[in-house]
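Backbone shapes recur. Consider a single case.
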Amino acid sequence: MTLPELTEGTLRELLDSEAARINSPAFIADDPVQFPRRFSRQPDIEIAALLASAIAWGNRRMICRDADRMLAMLDNRPHDFVMDEAYEELPDGNIHRTFFTADLRAYLRGLQRIYSRYATLEEFARANGVERSPAPAWALAEAINAELAAANNQAVCTDPSPGRPSRCLPQNLRTTALKRLNMALRWLVRRDGIVDLGVWSLLDPSQLYIPLDVHVGNVSRQLGLLTRKNDDRRAVDELTASLRRFRPDDPVIYDYALFGIGIGIK
């Protein structure tokens, strides 16, 4: 399906209609958002959100299958598992595509370093001034990456490459779209009570940026919301600015709309 050229008003109507259609309880069962929703304690929610979003690329069914298996490796008690440092006993293996147990161990070491000093990731974000940044997801990624580096440089382990950086978060923060962490923040911050959990009060939904991947980028270009050809940080800035024209208080509600519209676009 190729979309016709739309007026500003018609585009707003389309986005609002599709967002309302997709942002429903029926969406949860087939989406990685189901995993943080399994928990009631904020640290468990945060860790599940980080891990499920970390492998959220490719086929959604495969993502959900592998996220379910990954949480089972953590005995479905992620915060306790992290604090007990039980990740050092995990057997080597593949978790999802190019994401391996060594990557998971590296990430959990960093989280252990964070949660040993802060009750929640939200408190860690506050301590690092994330809410004052014009780009909170990138500020949070920078802070977490510093903890990952420190934790893994100190780690005594049997990984094939001790001290290797985790593949959970990109290192090239000047250019990366940071899709997966932006998605985790959508889960943690948006609070309409439908799909996203909204357990963080530190950030307002107006501060969020769109989780941009190839699919969302292609749909956005067809709708005239995005002109930049590369799916990078500059494209995230441009697309989010376009969406803020319609909902400055909650631009990433339209992540649902772009997903829904894109189902029929080739």
About this structure: The radius of gyration is 18 Å. Residues 31-201 form one domain. Residues 55 and 96 are 7 Å apart (CA to CA).
